Amino acid sequence: MREIELPITQTFSLTIDLHRLAEDQGEEVDGVRRIPLGNIVDGEKMKITELARKNGGKILYATTSIERQMESLLLSYFMGPFAGHSQKRAMFENEILQSSVLTFHAKKELVKKVIDEGNLLPGASKNQAHKYMKQVMEWRNAFAHGKIQYDSMKGCLINYYSGSKKILLLNDEYWENVENTFKECSELLKNAYENMH
User: Fold this and answer.
1) d(CA 179, CA 176)
2) Closest among 58, 66, 50, 69 to 143, alpha carbons compared
3) 117 Cα distance to chain centroid
4) Band (30; pLDDT cuts 50, 70, 90)
5) Closest CA to 116 of 77, 61, 149
6) Would you state the pLDDT for residue 29?
7) 160 alpha carbon, distance to own chain's centre
8) Between vectors from CA 66 to CA 71 and to CA 113, what angle results, nearest 5°?
9) Model confidence at 139, in pLDDT bands (50, 70, 90)?
10) How far, in Å, CA of 62 to CA of 193, rounded?
11) Averaged pLDDT score across all residues of the chain
12) CA 70/CA 107 separation, integer angstroms
């Protein structure tokens, strides 16, 4: 299998704080003061934005895994444990759970109700599961619809819209939070599934 190359828009921005520029900075050329800005794009910034895109792709794929866990929980809750092939069960799984009719948001809300109603997780864990599923959905939407860019002052970030314009700084602390959230969310959904039986 080969790695594919597709056209991707890249955004690099240079932020200048005019209040911090000293009068003596720069050089005068033909009576005009000029301040060198340096390179807006270099190899290191390119590597960082490429890694952010790869990590964003992993968020999209990991979200599909979380979504499969949610679907398994819903399937078992509404159709009971698997006891051999059932056309009714297969239709529910294929035509409702895995169709585009039921969005990730709708599944998340339904799983939340199932966990609450079935008392499938204890208090604090229940609240954490709800929080994690919401965060996973927001990150998925950010990377599916947002714009990754590199800002000269802030670093690598993603701009997206979720009720209002939002910006996430894509630093190591952020990526660690992503890893922990996905792992914990998956574990809590697994526990909820097991507590149903």
Assistant:
1) 5
2) 58
3) 28
4) confident
5) 77
6) 72
7) 11
8) 55
9) very high
10) 18
11) 88
12) 7
- Tens digits of residue pLDDT in 104-133: 999 999 999 999 999 999 989 999 999 999
Length of the chain: 197
Beta strand 147-151 with 11-13 is parallel
Average pLDDT over residues 4-12: 68
Please give the pLDDT value at position 62: 97
Concatenate the DSSP letters of all residues of the chain into one string. Answer: ----------EEE----GGG--TTSSEEETTEEE-----SS-HHHHHHHHHHHHHHHHHHHHHHHHHHHHHHHHHHHHH-S--S--HHHHHHIIIIITSTTS-HHHHHHHHHHHHHHHT-S-HHHHHHHHHHHHHHHHHHHHHHH-EEEEETTTEEEEEEESSSEEEEE-SHHHHHHHHHHHHHHHHHHHHHHHHH-
